[in-house]
Amino acid sequence: MEGLISLKSSPGTSLRSFPSFNQPPNSFARRFSMDLPLRRSSFPAIRAQQPGTISPKEEEEEDALKVKEWEVGMFQNEVAASQGIRIRRRPPTGPPLHYVGPFEFRLQNDGNTPRNILEEIVWHKDTEVSQMKERKPLATLKKFIENAPPTRDFVGALKAAHSRTGLPGLIAEVKKASPSRGILREDFDPVEIARAYEKGGAACLSVLTDEKFFKGSFENLEAIRNAGVQCPLLCKEFVIDAWQIYYARIKGADAILLIAAVLPDLDIRYMVKICKILGLAALVEVHDEREMDRVLGIEGIELIGINNRNLETFEVDISNTKKLLEGERGQLICQKDIIVVGESGLFTPDHVGYVQEAGVKAVLVGESIVKQSDPGKGITGLFGRDISL
Ligand SMILES: O=P(O)(O)OC[C@@H](O)[C@@H](O)c1c[nH]c2ccccc12
Fold first, then answer.
1. Distance from residue 285's CA to the centre of ligand 1 (Å)
2. What is the reported pTM?
3. The domain over range 138-383 is classified in CATH as 3.20.20.70
4. Ligand 1 centre and the CA of 341: distance in Å?
5. pLDDT (tens digit per residue) in 280-306
6. Residue 376 near residue 183, CB atoms below 8 Å
């Protein structure tokens, strides 16, 4: 429970006196499993009420729900921490006003400041998504999806490119800026860049949709889709809530990123199922052995991304891809027929050769190609030959 809100038994009380705290986190998580990803939408009616217009009974119910929500949040953090996840989903808060539990609570993080950039992004995303959800509830999104055109085969496109060129299939990233590198391209026209990538031989495209930290947008994703680009599109987003997957589907995504450093196993399982239902590919991103082992334990995963950039420190090291594919892990990946994508920090044909040798069948590249005046030619430079032929 490192760094999380700590729970201590008050003198004279026992853990047994409060059944939900008395169970291991996993069984708690199971009881609340459907609440975890969509937790914030669980009580919409109560959120919508105006203060002062509710009866005492309703107020009591609201308090009870606030306490329950808070408890779920506590256990969500606890389950995540038990899986080695250091990112807390939202800033720690004390218990709600009406909490009557047998514990003493203490905040370990004075000032509630995020501990690293990834945590800052996730906390901001939490607020952003809850606002977007109020404007466009899930039921509304589902109606749009009924009439949406079918998705394109993201994994199939990567496999086809790999067998056509003998090189890793390229996911070319449409990225204007990043917290670690600042602005990458001033004259940023997402559609023009996407067209140049497609012409240059990219198998798929990745489109950043985060606005605050990457200067991306869902409008960019939609514009690229509507411009007639044929490459399947990855929505590059920080997903913390299943609602975002439905939204990405409506905006034209064929695949979505799920980050294991942010999402506990239960969320990944649940979200991978939602992706299947919506016809989206899920690219599950890992950065270290522990995350890789967690993800290899989840059924139904077709695509794993190994990020060479640590999203908490920004350190980039392409030998990370090799390290995570060595030995039994690599064998298991082969047995399961999983496609591995080498992500970040790839600039030269030698870099591409190095990760290919390590076992990847696809690469995800942003900076080195988006910075070129002709991003399509950037692809030729990256691979050392024209891969559009
Ligand atoms: O620009 P680079 O170093 O080629 O990296 C691209 C891509 O891997 C990187 O943008 C990325 C990988 N995982 C992410 C998660 C969120 C945001 C961005 C990313």
1. 10
2. 0.82
3. yes
4. 11
5. 999 999 999 999 999 999 999 999 999
6. no
